[in-house]
Every structure is written in C-alpha cells, then in structure tokens.
Design a protein that fits this description.
54% of the residues lie in helices and 10% in strands. By secondary structure, it is of the alpha/beta class. It starts with a helix and ends with a helix. The mean pLDDT is 93.
C-alpha cells in the first residue's frame, strides 16, 4: 500500500463525512448545473456539436507530430520562440534560463493548470521571483497557501464567509466583506502589479498550428492584462492542446464555455501569434512558448487510453462525478482530479503511486455522458484497471482471491463444495474491512441451484 493510497483513504474518510464541506460543494455545484443546463439549451443539436468537437480533437491527436511542427514553423515566422520540454525538469530548466537571461524579478500569471502541473509558483519563489496569480479564484488559493481545488473553479471549496475571513487575516479588510468588495480590492491591488511585472506567464487552451498561435479563453480580463503590459510573455502549454487552425475554434470555444461555466462563450477570447509588431502599441516585445510533454506521449502510446488526450479541461466530468462531489478535489493529491485525472494520472506519473485512482469510481457513466468531446471515461477507467492487473501491480492476496473466485465461478462443484455456514464465517472474518465499516456485511443464502434441487425433490414427492 503506497503512501498516496494511504493518504487517499484517510482523506476520503475525512472529507466524505464533513457535512460543512459537502454543503458548500452542493451549493456551488447546483449553481453550475443550472448555468450549464441553460447554456446547453442554446444549442439546437448539442450532440452534433459534441461529435464535431470530438472529431477535431481526434484528428489533432492522430496528427500530433505534424501539427506541432507546423505550429513551431509558423510561430517562429511570427517572431516567437519555441522550447520543447520532454518532462517537468526540462520545462523548469527553460524557465530558470529565461529568468536569468532577462533578469526577471516579478511575474504575473494567468490561470493555468499546466503551470500547476510543474509547480511553477514554488520554482519562482525559490529563485527569489515574486509571482502573483491574477485569476481571482487562483489568487484566493494562492494567499491561502493552497492548490486549486478544481480545474475551472479553483476556490470552489470556500464559502463567502471563509474568503472574507481569509482577506481579513491577510489584508485586514472588513470581516463582513462582500464578494463585490473583495473583487474590487483585488482589482486595485493587482493593477500596479500588471504595470510593473517583468514577465507574464499563461497557459493556453488551444494551440493553432496553421496560424502559429496560442488561443486563450478566460472571464476576468486578467489574461489580457498578463500579456499586454509585461515586455515578456511566456506560455506553457501541453502538446495535446494542438488543433489544426483558427476555424476549429468556432466549435471548440463555445462548447468549452458551455460545459465549463454555462456561458454561450467566455468573456475574453484571445489569440496570440507572437510578440508585437513594429506597428503595434500593445503586447509583449518577446514571446516564448514552452511545449510540455511530461508523460503525454506515453499516454499517446496507449492504444486504448490515448483518447483521453482529447480533453479540453472544461471540468464537466468533475462536476458530474458522485465520487468527486463527495471526497473533493484535494483528496486525489494530483493536479488533475475527478474522472479525467483518474484516467490520465497513472500515465503522466508513477503507476504504482496513482493506480488506486482508477478504482475511485462508481462506473456510473455520468462522466462519459457529460464530456463535450465524447471521451468514454468510464471505459478508459476499466482499461486502466485491466492494465494494472496485466502488469501484476495488484497485491498477492488480491491475485489469490481472484484466482479462487475464477475457479469457483467456472466450476459449480468448487462453488458448492464449501458449506454456507463456513462461507459466511469467512465473510464476517475477512470481508468486513473490504466491505466497509459503515455497511453491514451481507449473508450468503442457498444458491439457486440448491434451492431448485430441493424444489424438484419436493414436487417429485
């Protein structure tokens, strides 16, 4: 049993029965569900839109190498510079080199899960660089010294009162501060940071191969500010975000917004083709793009699970998942939580440390149903489980039990040779822990075959 698994079990037990936490999540999820249902209603054929989005991503993943090279070629023509990072260490090395090269002392960041994946904030702080999250939700978890709770809504786990108390503790704002007051306070606080930052760092929702551009979507304008004022723009983007070109955004941008927040389209959608031209007044003087692999090509090599690379990080599967809704985002102890995180993490990281996540699912299929790019997450979780078994990453006792179960199921004499009373005794002695202490262990009765034999004998008499 790994440390991650032990921690997962402990946290699941704690969070799952935290009624205060569940009340907050239930409230926030209800707001999301209403908004998304409203957003989906604007589509005349939502399934057709999802099929189109799925096809775009499927074609993109199938041509990943060609499209990435096309992007690099076109982005370089636009005056930008591309770095390739095979893993987290290479990405960090590139960033450290850029910090030293440009003597960067302060950074403003737009919301980015890719930077969370490589723990960029910790790296910058370690190298004496001031780093500031500019998305309000990200800023809240940053000053609370926490990580994002959710892919789209980082501070979903906090109530209005908890956020007001946090700001009072950190900045001595009024204890009864309203969300509007806090939003204005943060806006004013960040303004000078935008104007004086040495560099702006973003992620990217999509990489446009044909245009050699990065597409960014957000709702607060902080992404525009992050890329407009600093002289240097660094975008750190996973290689799976590649798509053929700008025309594909007609489908992908609206469907991302609808499934992420319930909007018809996000408030701010920007396309960055490189540093500003001589004729332009706004934008960075230098733009870098770091293309991050970090296990993605390993996932691409999986014939069944590579479909997960189609994910556009909308967060819909998290919101639909009954497991996520009960145990929360932090319990997973990984950057990507919920069903999509359970699928991809054992490929992006060490299998033995994260294999338990593939079993943290009810297999109800709701995640598959809501996915805007039609990833069959339910099936991929089963493929993960299959691979874990085939690679013999289960325990000896599990393998022994499944061997005995298979033997018994394939031959009735093995199944019925053991008396019912003895079977129930074994269940009570060894099965209760696996069954759960809050559930009463079931009791085996006579098999249908035995009952049928008795009935035949009775009728014959």
């Amino acid at each position: 049993m790994t440390n991650n698994y032990k921690k997962f079990k402990k946290e699941s037990e704690k969070v799952g029965f935290d009624l205060h936490h569940r009340k907050k999540i239930k409230f926030n999820m209800s707001k999301y569900e209403y908004a998304v249902d409203t957003g989906k209603a604007y589509y005349s054929n939502i399934e057709l839109a999802k099929s189109s989005a799925s096809l775009i991503k499927q074609v993109s993943i199938a041509n990943l190498d060609k499209l990435l090279k096309e992007f690099e070629r076109n982005f370089t023509k636009n005056g930008g510079l591309v770095f390739w990072a095979s893993d987290e260490k290479e990405a960090k090395d590139h960033i450290i080199n850029l910090i030293k090269k440009h003597n960067i002392k302060s950074v403003v960041k737009s919301k980015s899960m890719t930077t969370e994946e490589i723990e960029l904030n910790y790296l910058l702080e370690k190298n004496k660089v001031e780093v500031l999250e500019t998305d309000l939700g990200e800023y809240i978890v940053q000053i609370a010294n926490e990580k994002p709770y959710h892919i789209v809504t980082p501070a979903m786990h906090k109530s209005k009162k908890e956020i007001a108390d946090l700001f009072h503790e950190k900045f001595n704002t009024p204890k009864d501060s309203t969300p509007e007051y806090i939003t204005n306070y943060v806006r004013n606080k960040l303004r000078n940071k935008f104007l004086n930052a040495d560099a702006g760092i973003t992620g990217g929702n999509f990489i446009l191969a044909e245009q050699g551009a990065i597409a960014l979507t957000e709702n607060e304008g902080n992404g525009l500010m992050t890329t407009s004022f600093p002289k240097i723009h660094i975008a750190i983007v996973g290689i799976e975000k590649i798509i053929p070109g700008i025309s594909d955004l007609d489908i992908l941008w609206p469907i991302l917004a609808t499934h992420g927040t319930g909007q018809r389209i996000s408030a701010y959608n920007s396309i960055f083709t490189g540093p500003k031209k001589n004729s332009e007044t706004n934008g960075p003087e230098i733009m870098y793009v770091i293309l991050l692999d970090n296990g993605r090509t390993k996932l691409l090599a999986q014939p069944d699970q590579k479909e997960a690379l189609k994910c556009i990080r909308c967060g819909a599967c998290l919101n639909a998942c009954p497991v996520y809704r009960n145990i929360g985002g932090y319990t997973y102890n990984t950057t990507y939580s919920g069903p999509i995180g359970s699928v991809i993490t054992q490929h992006l990281k060490e299998l033995d440390e994260y294999k338990h996540l593939s079993f943290a699912s009810s297999l109800c299929g709701k995640c598959t149903e809501v996915c805007p790019v039609k990833i069959d997450l339910q099936k991929l979780l089963l493929y993960n489980r299959r691979d874990i078994v085939e690679k013999k990453r289960t325990t000896k006792i599990e393998r022994l039990m499944m061997f005995a179960y298979k033997k018994a199921m394939l031959n009735r004499k093995y199944l019925e040779i053991v008396p019912i009373d003895f079977k129930n005794k074994v269940l009570r002695s060894f099965g209760q822990k696996a069954w759960g202490k809050r559930r009463e262990i079931f009791e085996l009765k006579e098999s249908f075959s035995e009952q049928w034999k008795k009935r035949i004998r009775f009728n014959s008499n």
